[in-house]
């Protein structure tokens, strides 16, 4: 979540009205509703006793090798993130707004004495990200009710006992058409394939460019290159950058590193537009996207999924 948008993103200056009114020859991507931003309510309140993440800029110039004690803290924060995500999966239904999902997640996080990492991160106004259908990433929860046939990514990060845990998953709302189901399945497969070859000595560029791109091509989808995974720990984002497309990012994995892998696959074009809110990333052709994410730990002989 939030590692940002790398240099491959499309820079376009659309007003919201101009963007949605533009002429568009839409391909037949299936049966679903194109999402437009709705009303965003006030942010949820965090009690004073909850520890906030530090605002101090990160001063890491290479991936951190964590100690056993740090790894245990990461396990605990990632376990809580997974608990929240699984709870949301049971809460999602037709008619539920993404704002209600945000409040639901916020309350679970606070009840567990943790802080929702996205809240106020560089101005983000909510506690989770909810990206529906053609929203590729960083969707802001609002008053739009989920509709029959929607696919939704919910991205959770919690700050617990001084460490961040980060994961996301796709959820099917009601009767999702086969193209939507195929997209979600392919994205889950791409994530699993990328994780499967992570180990000490593996090049960062090799893992993602081969596995994610290969799955996307075989299944007829497109990798959206402008969103990356990231190192994580006491910091929300740090080195290494994890690209999900062909790249030449330097360095090798080492035991003790923790980072996220979070590919985004699209039905159509890889072109993305960031809306005027500064966060919501939508596909230029209104095709659907899917994203899945785990935080992983490089071990002595492979990788452990901390958010499984």
From TrEMBL:
Gene Ontology MF terms in the entry: initiator methionyl aminopeptidase activity; metal ion binding; metalloaminopeptidase activity
Required co-factor(s) are: Co(2+); Zn(2+); Mn(2+); Fe(2+)
- CDD domains associated with the record: MetAP1
Residues that bind a divalent metal cation 1: 155, 166, 293
Enzyme class comes to hydrolase
Task: State what protein this is by name.
Answer: Methionine aminopeptidase
Q: What does this protein do?
A: Cotranslationally removes the N-terminal methionine from nascent proteins. The N-terminal methionine is often cleaved when the second residue in the primary sequence is small and uncharged (Met-Ala-, Cys, Gly, Pro, Ser, Thr, or Val).
Which family, according to UniProt?
Belongs to the peptidase M24A family. Methionine aminopeptidase type 1 subfamily.
What this protein catalyses is:
Release of N-terminal amino acids, preferentially methionine, from peptides and arylamides
Which Gene3D superfamilies does the protein's record reference? Creatinase/methionine aminopeptidase superfamily
> What is the top-level taxon of the source organism?
Eukaryota
Q: Specify which residues bind substrate according to the UniProt entry for this protein.
A: 138, 237
């Amino acid at each position: 979540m939030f590692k940002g948008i790398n240099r491959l993103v499309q820079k376009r200056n659309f007003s919201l009205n101009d963007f949605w009114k533009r002429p568009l020859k839409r391909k037949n991507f299936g049966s679903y509703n194109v999402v437009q931003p709705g009303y965003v309510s006030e942010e949820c309140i965090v009690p004073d006793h909850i520890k906030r993440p530090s605002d101090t800029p990160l001063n890491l110039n290479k991936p951190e090798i964590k100690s056993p004690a740090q790894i245990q803290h990461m396990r605990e924060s990632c376990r809580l993130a997974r608990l929240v995500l699984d709870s949301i999966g049971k809460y999602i239904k037709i008619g539920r707004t993404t704002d209600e999902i945000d409040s639901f997640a916020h309350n679970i996080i606070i009840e567990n004495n943790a802080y929702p990492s996205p809240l106020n991160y560089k101005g983000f106004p909510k506690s989770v990200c909810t990206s529906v259908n053609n929203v590729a990433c960083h969707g802001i929860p609002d008053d739009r009710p989920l509709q029959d046939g929607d696919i939704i990514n919910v991205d959770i990060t919690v700050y617990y006992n001084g460490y961040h845990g980060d994961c996301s998953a796709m959820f099917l709302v009601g009767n999702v058409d086969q193209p939507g189901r195929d997209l979600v399945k392919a994205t889950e497969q791409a994530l699993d394939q990328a994780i499967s070859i992570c180990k000490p000595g593996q090049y960062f560029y090799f893992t993602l460019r081969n596995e994610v791109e290969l799955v996307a091509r075989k299944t007829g989808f497109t990798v959206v290159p402008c969103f990356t995974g990231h190192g994580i720990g006491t910091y929300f984002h740090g080195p290494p950058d994890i690209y999900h497309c062909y790249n030449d990012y330097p360095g090798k994995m080492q035991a003790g590193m923790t980072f996220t892998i979070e590919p985004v696959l699209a039905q159509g074009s890889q072109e993305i537009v960031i809306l005027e809110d500064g966060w919501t990333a939508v596909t230029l052709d209104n095709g659907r996207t899917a994203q899945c994410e785990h935080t992983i730990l490089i071990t002595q002989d492979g990788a452990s999924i901390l958010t499984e």
